[in-house]
Specification:
Layout: E1 2-5, E2 9-12, E3 15-18, E4 22-25, E5 30-33, H1 40-46, H2 54-70, E6 74-78, H3 88-98, E7 103-107, E8 125-126, E9 130-132, E10 145-148, E11 153-158, E12 164-173, E13 176-178, E14 189-190, E15 197-203, E16 206-210
Parallel strand pairs: 5-6, 6-7, 9-10, 10-13, 11-14
Antiparallel strand pairs: 1-16, 2-3, 3-4, 4-5, 8-9, 11-12, 12-13, 12-15, 15-16
């Protein structure tokens, strides 16, 4: 069963989920995205695979649209800004472009080790209620809601007649919230809601909540 909305959905106090794969806090003024894997096409081309560049173009366009629409004080990239070292210089150009809109905060992910000499990375970032980190390392117990990436959550809708549609998902498991992968190349890992979790399927046309069986 599904509950649908064509507008951003409130998923917590003052927190909106946008179907363009971003989370926005109205009072704290941050916009969070994760797992851009920017430059995946460059990595594939370096390996001899002819991938089109539309992924990088759509990532940049979508980010700029979100920044214009929400005017946040901070853009938080919750890890894996790039896929590998092939995109380091393109990522620096992207950050410079996005910094025209607001402060850009880069949290280190497991794909970002080549970025350290080029752009500033932090292991985590905290506000009064939230703790942002990529999620690929064990973390001491936190009294804040953890907002992470890394897992590339997704969910699947079915119509009962054999048609299935898989979409990126935002997952809330108690004190741990998992952001969808911002990369258009990510197929995602299926998550199924239960009585203790919520799974929101995201698309630019709408947000669908998967109901627990």
């Amino acid at each position: 069963m599904y509950a649908a909305s064509s507008s951003p959905v409130a998923v917590g106090k003052d927190v909106l989920l946008d179907g363009r794969l971003a989370l926005f806090h109205k009072r704290e003024g941050w916009l969070a995205v994760a797992d851009l894997h920017f430059g995946y096409e460059l990595s594939q081309r370096a390996a001899g695979n002819l991938f089109p560049f539309w992924g990088m173009q759509t990532i940049e366009k979508r980010l700029e649209e979100l920044l214009r629409d929400y005017s946040p004080a901070h853009l938080i990239v919750v890890g894996d800004l790039v896929h590998d070292c092939a995109a380091v210089h393109e990522a620096r150009r992207l950050i410079k472009q996005l910094s025209r809109y607001c402060n850009v905060l880069l949290i280190a992910g497991n794909h970002d080790h080549e970025l350290s000499p080029v752009v500033g990375l932090v292991d985590s970032w905290k506000t009064k209620r939230f703790h942002f980190h990529h999620g690929h390392r064990a973390l001491d117990r936190s009294d804040r809601v953890q907002i992470i990436g890394h897992y590339h959550p997704a969910g699947t809708m079915a119509d009962g007649a054999g048609l299935r549609l898989k979409l990126p998902a935002f997952v809330q498991e108690g004190n741990r919230w998992m952001l969808p992968a911002f990369s258009p190349w990510s197929s995602g890992t299926d998550f199924t809601p239960d009585q203790q979790s919520r799974v929101w399927l995201c698309s630019p046309q709408g947000i669908f909540r998967l109901e627990a069986n």
